[in-house]
Specification:
Elements: E1 16-22, E2 31-37, H1 55-68, E3 70-76, H2 78-84, H3 86-105, E4 111-115, E5 126-129, H4 137-160, H5 166-169, H6 175-184, H7 195-198
Parallel strand pairs: 1-4, 4-5
Antiparallel strand pairs: 1-2, 2-3
Length: 217
């Protein structure tokens, strides 16, 4: 199967940033987005959708991207996810990623390509591309930065909150994680607006609505 390339990106003006996020589905931890501007001559080989890459390859490409690409990372916290819902927290993280890219590199993208079916409500020239991380090399690069960054965050949190397996499941609703919720209870890093967590809240506590799975742009 073909890997992401620059074909869909070439009609757009440079500098072009690809944007993607990681961590919409987990029950715990933040959502992390990345924005990446690639040098179309000097870029790491093997860039692909982060979900398709084994962890060693993903980490290696992450390290090479740090040396040759302009990168920004944006994070939306658990509190923001519960307050805004996951859809708008995702949009917030992506907006922060592009802002961080501009601040860190001094480069303001002429165009932004966003993975998904909608762009944040910004005034930047941009276009959403469904499954962009499988088609566009810049978006795929952003998916790697976002995924590795979030995985490392969750591995660090696992040291403070052992027993949930976050160093392995990254906060996703695996059987291991669900069993730990029942055995150990909730942590401050659990998303109260997600059903498996909300259903385990003490009955006297207010329970956020699950608007996160019904929001639209």
């Amino acid at each position: 199967m073909a890997r992401p390339c620059f074909k869909l990106e070439r009609p757009f003006p440079m500098p072009l940033a690809g944007v993607d996020e990681a961590g919409c589905a987990p029950l715990a931890g933040p959502v992390v987005a990345a924005a990446v501007i690639l040098d179309r001559v000097h870029f790491p080989r093997g860039i692909d959708d982060s979900k398709k890459l084994p962890i060693n390859a993903r980490e290696a490409i992450y390290g090479r991207l740090q040396k040759v690409a302009a990168i920004g990372v944006g994070i939306a916290s658990v509190e923001e996810i519960d307050e805004l819902n996951i859809y708008w927290a995702r949009m917030l993280a992506m907006s922060r990623a592009v802002e961080a890219l501009s601040q860190a590199s001094g480069i303001d993208p002429a165009w932004v390509l966003v993975d998904g079916n909608a762009c944040p409500r910004w005034e930047r020239p941009s276009q959403a591309i469904v499954a962009g991380d499988t088609k566009c090399r810049s978006i795929a690069a952003a998916s790697i930065i976002a995924k590795v960054t979030r995985d490392r965050i969750m591995a660090d949190h696992a040291l403070s909150w052992p027993g949930y397996g976050w160093e392995r499941n990254r906060g996703y609703p695996t059987p291991e994680h669900i069993r730990a919720l029942d055995a150990l209870g909730l942590t401050p890093l659990h998303r109260r607006s997600f059903a498996p967590v909300r259903d385990r809240l003490p009955s006297e506590m207010p329970q956020p609505s699950l608007s996160s799975h019904t929001a639209t742009a």
